[in-house]
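User: Just a sanity check before I run the rest of the batch. Below are the structure tokens for the first item. I only need the designed sequence back.
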């Protein structure tokens, strides 16, 4: 089964966010509508939910294309994705008025202010989580699809 390796790589990449993002949406709906906890993040939810699965799929296709040249392990390749997603997401969020950048912190939705040091910790945690997700889940799906 060596036909269409990039299509299979795309499908392996979109599996994780396609399964996880609806669970996050359900949690948000329960908190927002069921428990009446106010979160001003509706504007910031839809855009990532639309882009993240496709980005994961394209990232998986990039690994499939480059692995013979770079010999980069899948988990390490996946760990680099937050380094791309966070700056691009911050740029888009600032353009649509969801995020405001200051000298020492960022403010989301004019309500939540976080220092850059905390964001750096979040980036490191995201890289670890992506490493594990890509190594074990996407790697397993790649094996099942015969492209590992």
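Assistant: Here's the designed sequence for the first item:
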């Amino acid at each position: 089964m060596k036909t269409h390796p990039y299509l299979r790589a795309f499908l392996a990449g979109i599996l994780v966010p396609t399964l996880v993002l609806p669970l996050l949406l359900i949690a948000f709906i329960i908190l927002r509508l069921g428990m009446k906890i106010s979160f001003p993040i509706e504007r910031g939810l839809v855009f990532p939910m639309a882009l993240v699965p496709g980005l994961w799929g394209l990232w998986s296709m990039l690994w499939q294309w480059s692995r013979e040249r770079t010999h980069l392990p899948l988990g390490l390749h996946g760990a680099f994705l937050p380094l791309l997603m966070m700056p691009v997401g911050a740029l888009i969020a600032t353009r649509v008025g969801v995020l405001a950048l200051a000298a020492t912190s960022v403010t989301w939705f004019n309500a939540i202010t976080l220092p850059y040091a905390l964001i750096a910790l979040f980036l490191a945690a995201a890289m670890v989580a992506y490493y594990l997700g890509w190594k074990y889940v996407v790697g397993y799906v790649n094996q099942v699809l015969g492209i590992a």
